[in-house]
Amino acid sequence: MKQNLGHFPKESNVCNCTNIRRASRALTQFYDECLSPSGLTVTRMGMLHQIMELKHPGISELAAAFRIDRTTMNRNLKALLADGLVILRAGQDARKKEVQLTELGTAKLQQAYGLWCQAQQDLEDYLGREELQQLRGSLAKLEALVP
């Protein structure tokens, strides 16, 4: 699914943070449109993928992986729970709850994966491989501002 790319350049703001936040919102909207046939947003797909990768993470562990607080993660998980994409199970420590994908969650993640791969390719075609690699390096460096 080729997206309509190429409406640049947008006027830059003097505030670097504003530019990055605007770009982040645009990129999120782009991925959400690409993933829409799966019924997942890029945020939900990312959460499902992280749950799969971490193999039954606790809520705090999942929140740390996304650099958000536990309360926000709980709020985000409620929607996944309500849609039957994840379940919460008691962990080895009774105080800890683990998040696990359901069969439906796994199926939705697999369905979204092909769409996500196409979005990744579309973005690489738009920016070029070298510029995309530079962007990834810059973003990693920015994220390291706050360990």
Structure overview:
The structure is a single chain. The protein is mostly helical and 147 residues long. The chain has helices at 16-35, 42-54, 59-66, 70-82, 103-127, 129-143, and strands spanning 86-90, 97-101. It has a two-stranded antiparallel ribbon with strand order 1-2.
CATH-level-2 architecture:
Orthogonal Bundle
Average pLDDT confidence is 91
Radius of gyration: 17 Å
CATH superfamily: Winged helix-like DNA-binding domain superfamily/Winged helix DNA-binding domain
CATH top level?
A: Mainly Alpha
- Beta-strand share of residues: 5-15%
Whole-number count of domains: 1
For the structure shown, list the relevant keywords:
single chain; mainly alpha; globular; 147 residues; Arc Repressor Mutant, subunit A; two-stranded antiparallel ribbon
